[in-house]
Amino acid sequence: MTNLAARRLLLVHAHPDDEAIGTGATMAHYARAGAQVTLVTCTLGEEGEIHVPALAGLAADAADQLGGYRIAELAAACAALGVSDHRFLGGAGRYRDSGMMGLVTNDHPRAFWQADLDEAAGHLVEIMREVRPQVLVTYDPNGFYGHPDHIQAHRVAMRAAELATAEGFGPAKIYWTAMPKSVLEAGMAAFGESSDNPFAGIDRFDDLPFGTPDAEIAARIDGTDQHAAKEASMRAHATQIPASSWLYSIAGNFGGEFMGVEYYTLAAGERGPGSGPYGWEDDLFAGLAPEAVGPAAVAGADALAESGAR
Fold first, then answer.
1. CATH placement of domain 8-306
2. Is there a binding annotation on residue 86?
3. Do 106 and 113 form a contact (C-beta atoms < 8 A)?
4. How many other C-beta atoms are found inside a 10 Å radius of the C-beta of residue 244?
5. Mean pLDDT across the stretch 82-99?
6. Measured between alpha carbons, how far is residue 153 from residues 12, 166, 187 in Å?
7. Sign (positive/negative) of CA torsion 179, 291, 81, 222?
8. If you count Cβ atoms within 10 Å of the first and of the last residue's Cβ in the chain, which end, N or C, has fewer?
9. Cβ neighbours of residue 102 under 8 Å, at least 6 residues apart?
10. 290 CB contacts (<8 Å, ≥6 apart)?
């Protein structure tokens, strides 16, 4: 409890590279501003595709060494974001990448999808006890797009917040990553005529497995000055994000808005002051005193119950 930064942000992600794609600008923004940014990654991402042909032998169905390689990729990505505090949940390799929903890899004995909820949450509580985050960021109950490890990361994070709250050091605010429907609609329009269209085959943004009505968004974090750091962190994950990825097309053509701005819903805690038609916060710590360390209280418990995490 000594020498804690005035602002402390904890992010819980499922695999290496999730932090860069989903919250990289936010992490870089707060790290540069002097906040304590702690990243917890739940698996090594052993089941990921490999986009570097020379490294194909690392695959799960070959040497099964991709997870170890991705530890180094994650370290480089965190360095690009200016984040020095990174942990693997329960230690590197305790939980294994479960693969996509419905695959046999979901049943691996170390698959994160099979993890005991309270045991996994207990590992996260120990980190919370040390860093005392005021703000927790993770996925929504569907893991943003339905991956089992993302869903489990949500459950573990919410259960850990509940347990930490019971001990008196739970986060004051909990956010879930989100994408406003207006941004998705603009993205579909921008890429409509592109040969590298990530929305190909999708006629309506309502057909996507994610997307949040703008009125339900609570925070818009403007990290446009950090979008280069976010891009660098993504490039560090070379096995997972090919150099030809449409994500880099976004970086090149729409870097500020599409790469540097990230959105969140508020799952627990009191909403701070905001602006615009929906009162979006521009700071995840909005409304908190510098040393506010308190429970997300009843709201956190309610969010947990609604997510079916028990």
1. 3.40.50.10320
2. no
3. yes
4. 10
5. 98
6. 7, 20, 27
7. positive
8. N
9. none
10. 6, 7
Enter the tokens of residue 189.
Answer: 């329009």
Using the structure block, give the residue that is written with the tokens 């906040």. Answer: 35
Please identify which residue in the block is written with the tokens 């989903």: 22
Provide the sign of the torsion angle of the four alpha carbons 102, 234, 52, 199, taken in this order: positive
Has this prediction a pTM greater than 0.85? yes
Within 10 Å of residue 209's Cβ, how many Cβ atoms?
Answer: 10
150 known member of a binding site: yes
3-state secondary structure the chain: CCCCCCCEEEEEECCCCHHHHHHHHHHHHHHHCCCEEEEEECCCCCCCCCCCHHHHHHCCCCCCCHHHHHHHHHHHHHHHHCCCEEEECCCCCCCECCCCCCCHHHHCCCEHHHCCHHHHHHHHHHHHHHHCCCEEEECCCCCCCCCHHHHHHHHHHHHHHHHHHHHCCCCCEEEEEECEHHHHHHHHHHHCCCCCCCCCCCCCHHHCCCCECHHHCCEEEECHHHHHHHHHHHHHCCCCCCCCCHHHHHHHHHHHHHHHEEEEEEEECCCCCCECCCCEECCCCCCCCCCCCCCCHHHHHHHHHHCCCC
Contact 160, 128 (CB under 8 A): yes
Cα–Cα distance for residue pair 296/310, rounded to 1 Å: 18
> Given this model, what pLDDT does residue 293 score?
43
Q: Is the pLDDT at 89 greater than 90, yes or no?
A: yes
Please count the other Cβ atoms lying within 10 Å of the Cβ belonging to residue 216. Answer: 12
Q: Is the pLDDT of residue 70 over 70?
A: yes
Decide if pLDDT at 67 tops 80: yes
To the question of whether residue 15 is assigned a binding role by annotation, the answer is yes
What residues does each domain of the chain span? 8-306
Position 9: which residue type?
L
